[in-house]
Amino acid sequence: MSESWTQIDQYIESHLIPHDPRLEQNLQNTAAHGFPDHLAVAPNQGMLLQMLIQMNQCKRILELGTFAAYSTIWLARALPEDGYVLTIEGRDTHGAMAKENIELAGLSHMVDARVGRAADVMKQLIAEKVPAFDFIFIDADKQSYPEYLELSLELSRSGTIIFMDNVVRAGDIINFENKKPSIEGLRELYRVLENHPRLLSSTALQTVGSKGHDGFALSIVK
User: Which of 19, 22, 41, 209 is most solvent-facing, going by the fewest CB within 10 Å?
Assistant: First the structure.
């Protein structure tokens, strides 16, 4: 099935995803440095992020989990010229690769790439009382998703969209013998999302494709 899912993704991409030299260069440069591409979003997933940003006329984006900045480019290219992306990466090696790819894509003027523990950077932003973000993309360590959600709410406004990736993990969320911290963190996320007083609505969708069987959760701040 996974081979078929990949072929279908490729078919979708061939018809609906326009070629962007910046994205292709990102993948090539990342591979040349020996980084795997499976940690990046698929092109059709990147387009979904872009469309959500465009539909809601977002201008300020927060991303948790930069990796090599493939998704960051998708986020940034959806913004107007005065848009702003703050992306946070926890690993030094990934952060260095991300900054290189952002510079190669010509997006350094609108992307602020920081390296550090996401929760620590977010707490600093809250203390600094930075303007609210319009769109928050969470694609980092899964065990911390509940904490990231609560911190995200402190950096949001009414109508902010919070998009959380990789929340199904091939169905492991319902395999209750799986006690990995990442899976337990996702289960706690669902409990936190349920009837959260500061969220207008939330849902989650399963996905299959070139990245396997997974899914994303989506919330709107009240």
Answer: 19
